[in-house]
Amino acid sequence: MSRVSRLLAFADREPSNPILLCDLLDELLTEGRVDEALARLRLAPAELQISSAVKFREARCALLRRDFAGVVTILQPLVAGATEVPVGITHDLAYAQLSLGSFDAAWQTLATTQAQGDDAVAVALLKARVLHHQKRYEVALDVLEPFASGPRCAEVRGLRALLLLDIGETALAAEQAEQALGADPAQYEAAIVQGTVALWEQRVDVSQAVFERVLAVDPQSGRALLGLGQVRMLHADIPAARAVLELAVARMPDHIGSWHALAWCQLLEGDLAGARHCFDRAFAIDRTFGETHGGFALVHALRGERHEAEESIKRATRLDPNGPSARYARSILLLDEGRPEEAQKIIDDILPQASRLGLAVPADFIYRLRELVRPRG
Fold this sequence. Notes:
By secondary structure, the chain is mostly helical.
């Protein structure tokens, strides 16, 4: 007789026993039998259904169904006004809040959580993920530092790798990712770093294999969708890239890089209105990002709006002197002035950076694009 069968028999004999009910629910959820767990919950006496221990299991059912709003509805009353809350409840509530994009609420839920042992690692990982979304990268790295070895070290190192990648420490990120994948070949964040670094290094086949492997497990992974979209761009399959990147921005509406990648797809198709919309979305996230202003400059230049392009180039160059988008915009203005040699020099200087953007643009693409959006009469 299986453990579930034994617990079912015991629970049927003692339907008012909260310990037996919780043990049964835990075992059912461990086996992924969520519907059966919910059925047992509904059959439980009313006084058990409202107990915090059973409500916690009900929230776990909602969590496994990815009903994050339901988790918050169930668990929030258990936390409100309480002086001491079990770590499991605060962890699951914060996880649901994070999944809903309520980053400040998730951080507030975790701020006073005290945990030990394996719970401490779980809370640290969740805190670091919240901080990552809040772009508090250095603080997130500090939170993870005490847990770099020991339980869940592969997950800790993988998340550290992604944080390091996002602050520009590419070599350290790759090193941490390698360590994480050595401990767990399926570690998610480490795989994202591995695929991204391979993309930047033009090892496109490696990058594609990594992102496809991630998406086979998690088809909703925004970072993997972004990476695969850029791989499609490097293969010069712009319509396919655009389709994938549209999924990426839907999953990560607050990720500037995804909006920029989609904007470039639209530029390469001559869709200036779509590109402008994407740059507007990126601008709403961060008004000080130089490449966004460079994108505005490029759209203005392609539209023949010289004054607006010049103003955007100034802002972009002040924020990022080496930003390629503003320099492409400058090359278009030079072409409009009949100065093709100077324009070509700028383009020749930009092209080596293209791989970092996940772009495979031919040397003459800006000429083609200019002709596409402003054909001669």
